[in-house]
Every structure is written in C-alpha cells, then in structure tokens.
Amino acid sequence: MKNDEKHYCDILVIGSGIAGLSCAISAADLGLDVIIVTKDSSIEESNTFYAQGGIVARGRDDSPELLIDDIMQAGDGISNPDAAKIVAFEGPGMVEDFLIKKVGVSFSRNVDNEFEFAREGSHSRRRILHSMDMTGKAIEEALVAKLPEYKNIRAYSGYTAVDLLTIPHHSKSPLALYKEPQCIGAYVLNNRTERVERIFSSYTILATGGLGRIYLHTTNPTVATGDGFAMADRAGARLINMEYIQFHPTTLFHKDADGFLISEALRGEGAKLKTKDGIPFMDKYSPLGDLAPRDEVSRAMYEEMIKRGDNYVYLDIASYTEINVKKRFPMIYQRCLAHDIDIQKVPIPVVPAAHYSCGGVQVDLWGKTSLKCLYAAGEVAATGLHGANRLASTSLLEGLVWGIRSAKDIAGTFDGNKPYKESEIPPWQFPERIEEVDPALIQQDWVSIKSTMWNYVGIIRTVRRLQRARADIGYLKNRVDDFYRRAHLSPMVISLRNGVRTARIVAEASLKNRVSRGAHFIR
Hints:
Methane Monooxygenase Hydroxylase, Chain G, domain 1
C-alpha cells in the first residue's frame, strides 16, 4: 500500500448532489478532466437524493418576472436581484435542456401526458416540476447513471475531504508567501485504507451540501455536517448570511422518523396546519395562511406549541383535498403508514426542523469564491439568491444553474498552467503519537453541539441565548481541535471537527446581526 497516493485533474468536485454532478458533466462535455469525491460509500447519498417537493421550472401562466418577484418576497427583500434574474431567465431552460433532454429525468405527467406542475408556499403560480414526492431521487439517479458515459470523469466514493490544499499555506517554499492565496486541490482521506491522499487540481468546486446535522432536529441526511463551510473558512474564503438557517415547518413527529420531511407540496395541494385539538391557526399569522413563507410558518407552529404546551401540531390533508393522496405522495404515504398513520384518513403529527442554509461561501454570478481557483455551488454556496429565506424548490434549481455556470466559466479561462511546484507541497503529516478514538466521546460532543444549536440558535433567538451558544460552542471547538490534532483520523473525527466549526460560524453570525429578518428571528 502506498503511503502517499496522488491524483491529478483539471477540476476537483467535492460533493455529488445536483450541483456537483451537473458541474462535473458540464465540465467533461467541455473537455476537462474531472475527479468527484464524496465521503459516503454511495455516490448517490446527498441532500439532493432526499429532496421531495420538486424543482422550479416555468409554469403555463408563468413568467421570469413573476418568479423574480416571488424570490425577492420570500427572501425578505435582501435576495441578490442579479442572482434572481439568472435563475429566472436561465434556470427553466437548463431544466429542460440538461435535466430532461440530456440526463433523462422523468418528471410526473398528467393524463394528457403534459408535465404536472405543483405549487408550494410563497409561489404565485404552479411552476414546480416533480417526480411524485421523490424528485431528488429521480434527479440524482439520472445524473449518476450518466457518469459512466464519460471517460474524463473519475468518481471516488468513500473519500472524505480533510482540507483544501492552498498556497501559500501548504507550500514549503518561503517565496510562496508573496503569491496570491490560491486553492490547488485537497487532502482527502481514503476511508478504506485510512490514508490521506493528495488531489492536485487546477480548480476546485465545493458542492458539499448543507449543515442540518449540527441541529438536534433536521431533515438533512447524516452526511450534512457542514464540511464545506468549515473547509472554506479554514482556507480563508469569505462566508456570508450564515445566520439565515431555514427551518422546514413540517417533519414527521415520531420517535423513529429521524426528521422525515413532509413536503410543502401537501400544503400546496390544500393541507392545513391545526392544533392538537383540531383548530386551524395559520390565517391569524399570515394573509397567505398555510402557504406563507417557511420562516413564518415555523414560528407560528413554535408559538402555538409553546402557548399550548404541545410538542407537535397536525398537518391535515385528508379533510381538505380530493386528490389521490396515495398516488400523489406515495413515499410520504408509505413512510407514515409504516408508523401507523394513514394520511388519507387522519392528520399527520409534525414539528419544524433545521432544513437549509440560506448563506454560505460567497460566490459571484459564475460561482467564484473570494479564494482564487475555488468555486462553490449548491447549498454550501451563497449566491445571494435566497436572501434571508429560501423560496421553496429553488434549491435544486440554484445548484443546477451554478453547477453548469461554474463549469462554463472554468472552461472559458482554463489554460492548464500549474501555479505551484508539486515538490513544495508536502504529503499529509500524521501525528507521531496517535490516540485511538472513543466513539462515546464523539457522540457526546455531537449531543452538545446539536442541543446547544437547537435551544440557543434555533427558530426563535435571543441575545442571551446566542451569547451562551458562542461561549459553549467556542469552548467545545477548542477542545475538539486539540483532540483532532492527536486523534486517529477517521470520517467521524473529520465531521466532528467541521461540525463544531460550522456551528460556531452560525452562532457568531446570529449574534452579530441584531435585526430580525426572514429565517433569523431575534428577540
């Protein structure tokens, strides 16, 4: 077994959701050599895979201007108007040309074989394409199935990114200090061999997804531990809007459900939120009622639960729609039925949960970060599209748009030059005395992070709570960093290190911003 395995590519893509794979395929089409790494053993494992509701396209009575208005209103006035224009004017065409025609994603159709458009909260039109309630799965599987067609794409699953390789930071040459900071690839842990390998790349794309797992209740899969945010922060890239954490109002309240998402599309089809004693309540909180923006719905649910001393509310679709619920939402129906809840007959117990980071690594309109040769796309990136609160079903579209735009931008300027001497970039240095990892300690640290973030940096925040969070998370981060420097390197250690750093970033951003707006509500 080699102790220093090296790989070379034009573009390194870290992450395998819609943003990463659309970037990889587009770059490969433009003649570039691509490596994809993803930390799970399955390349399909990503936030994209679990997306239920759909992806914004262009409805029959729709226009780009209407979509822009909806994005700006949902973002509470601070969405980047230039990003909104790009998504509204370019996005639907990319859905048709790339996802449908090129990749072959099968979206749901009606009896006339026309695409079936859904509507979700804060949308003024039916414009959301879906594949029943498994849209992300359909998109992810189609993208992954496309990869074997490309000889210039290498996909490595079971590889955990440790840190971005940057100069001058990782260079042994003292003269590198005079060069502009630049990303030249990444150190990655081969989960199977437990060795750290170097990937040298002319450009690197962060497409690592979200951070939901730093919260006690989340819709996100286990891989969403904030890795990209933390790696970018350590490398010196700029992060913005990290206080705007969107909480999805409706996840299944059940001890065995693990944050299972109940799509907003149910409310788009007429479902209503009720208290445990059956009283609808959203009309008194918003003129949009049950189709209000997610932050308003989550706070309304939180207020009703606190006021009544309840630990959940109900989402009732059985009483308010004539659609075939079992056919329209088959995955939700089956998952709830497995917990003895027949959603065609009884309401669903639901609670809010951490869902999406509206901020992230700041990028321009082509995906460039503030660090040379580092791009970002998808949830880890902050294009400004989401502002203070994301409009439903725009996340998949944003990942698609910036994945493709990043690839095009790189291909347009790519010259193949290497700004470093490989001999100046050392292999990974393991500590001389390695401590074995006690999983119980890792688990306890995660409990501390999740509980602190949920209780102090959650749906409703106060200055005192945030001050406590900053202190507690800061202390824990120092302890984890010290432990990391001596620990036997493993995915669980890397995820903990990234999770606690990302939690601190969110807590500090939340404390700094004293203005309630969108998904950041501070008393």
